[in-house]
Amino acid sequence: MSHLDDPFRLPRTVLPYRYEVSLTPDLEAATFTGSVSITVTAFKATEIVLNAIELDIHSAAINGLDVPFELHEESERLILTAPYELSDDSRITLTFSGILNDKLRGWYRSTFTDEFGRVRTIATSQMQSTDCRRAFPCFDEPDFKAVFAIKLTVADGLMAISNSKELQREINPDGTSTIWFADTMKMSTYLVAFVVGPLEATEPVMVGNTPVRVIHIPGKSHLTDFGMRAGVFALEWFEKYYGIPYPGDKVDLLALPDFAAGAMENVGCITFREVLLLVDPATST
After folding, report:
1. Is CATH 3.30.2010.30 correct for 199-285?
2. For the whole model, what pTM was predicted?
3. Which end of the chain, N or C, is more open, meaning fewer C-beta atoms within 10 Å of its C-beta?
C-alpha cells in the first residue's frame, strides 16, 4: 500500500509521542538550520511517512541507522524507508535547513524599523493549521499529539520564546546562546511556537503560580498595560470558572508587527497582531 493511496491523511502505522527539536535561525540571511529527533511507536511499519515542505533534508536515520528518504513536494510528505520492519518504540533523527519565509506561516520573517531607522527582523511562527511542516519535519495532523522539547541557538542580544519556560542557557564560544525549554504538555503540532528577535518583556505578573508577560518590540513598553491587565483577568477568571489550574508553566502574550490572524492560541506563547494587543491610553478609549 502506497502512502499516496490516501493523499489527505498520513498512515497510522507510526505514532509519535516525543519530539526533540533544535533550531538555529540566521535572521539576517532569513534562513535556519535544525535537527529533530522523534520517538515513535511503530506497528509493523516498513516505511515512515511524515510531513515536510520548503525544507532541505540533509540526513535521515532510524534507530541510529542511516536510511534513504524522498521528499514528495506535491503531497508535502517525507518518506523514509525503514531498514527492517519496525515494531514498538523507534527513534527518527533528521537534519535539515530552511528559510524564514515571507508568507506569514510556518517559521516566518517579521520586520520593524527601530528608533535608529534600521530594519530589524523577528523569526516568528504560525503553525495553524498545517504549517509546522515548514519549520521541521513532523506528523502534522492534529490527532498526532506529542510532547515537544525545544532548543534554540540564537545570536547575542536576541530574545527567544517558546511554549514553555526556559530551563537552561549556555553561551557558546562564538557568542551565540543556546536555550533549552521545558517539555510541553502533550499537544498537536499546530500549537508549537518559537519566536526569536530583538524583543523586550514586561516584568511578570503572577496568577497563582503562573507568570504572565507581554513581549514587544523595543520602545513600546508604555503600550502594554491594557493587554497585561486583560490577560491576567482572563486567566484568573477561567481558572475560577472551570475550577482547573492553568496546565502550563507560563503565559507570554506576544505583540508582532506582521501577523495574518488576529491572535493564535499557542500554548504558553500566545501571538497577537501588534495593534490588537498594544494600546495607547492617550489615544484609545
Report:
1. yes
2. 0.96
3. C
